[in-house]
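User: If only I could read backbone structure tokens as easily as an amino acid sequence. Those tokens are not coordinates but codes from a learned vocabulary of shapes. Could you go through the record with me and say what the backbone is doing? Here is the record:
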Amino acid sequence: MSQKNETLTLFLAVVATIGLIFGGLWFLMERWAQLNGTVPKSSETANTANTSNPINQFVNRCNVPNLLEGTFNYGGSTTWAPIRKDVDSVLESQCPRFILRYTQPPSGKAGSGTGIRMLIDNQLAFSQSSRSVKAEENAEAQQKGFSLKEIPVAIDGIAIAVNHDLNIPGLTVAQLKDIYTGKITNWQQVGGPNLPIKVYSRSEEAGGTVEFFVENILNKEKFTANISYVDTTTEAVRKVAANPGGIYYASAPEIVPQCIIKSLPLGRTSSQLVPPYQQPVVPPSQCPNKRNQLNSQAFRSGDYAITRNLFVIVKQNGQTDQQAGEAYANWLLTPQTQDLIEKAGFVRIK
């Protein structure tokens, strides 16, 4: 082989080696950018028109205005559990630099009230609530230099669970109040069988659902002395399924799809009973392969007698906590996230 050919071969080998090195470095840079949700400016510009590029899709996924980077403690309502599981997880995957950390209360049980308390005590950046902020809570926050803003993001309802064998068309809100305050003690008094009523509830310290029920249904009257307290809705549902005279109330997504109990129609009057489930009702024999679905239209229109909003509670302090809470609430109100909220079992608010 001539010296000229040897020189050419060596030159080509060097060029190939350099190409492989730069190609490897470029691949590693692109991979690093993909994992961190960013791409170099020149690459981002080059891919602007190529929406099928996976890196470009990753960059555009986190489309939340004013979203901060960092870890933010949040907590509160147990009613929000399906949203934390099925909706918040999407935000975390789309915007991995906005880290949400659900924080249990240092004492007592989780709930709307404890979440608001932790927010006032600066233990949370924002909280989730199934009830409005109380005047005394806002007054306490103002003593610490800020106010509390509630941002409604979804609609929920209170559903009433009874035993499948109970033959009754439904209840009025007034009858429900009388049952839980002890004025009505037998199902015969509301058109049912001669059967004692067994009343179940979580404790008043348990969270926003009980507080909402006492405030808006019982008009702040006390529970009947014969009430039986339970720790969880799961426990209550099992007790109602085992007791023909049992009754319990909870967030509609926790009750309506259940197989072992049924939810009752409710009305402001006995002539206007509205079911919390879509018609036709799914019989127990078809459950769990098919489950009852929320009567979203009646919840949204207000035809169903007991509905409420779910709120993000935000500090109005002009600091990062406020910005994080407002950005989170605004994300929940986007059309795509409202779809996710509906899939999680609640009713979209917009």
In short: The first strand starts at residue 70 and ends at 76. Residues 30-60 have pLDDT under 50 and may be disordered.
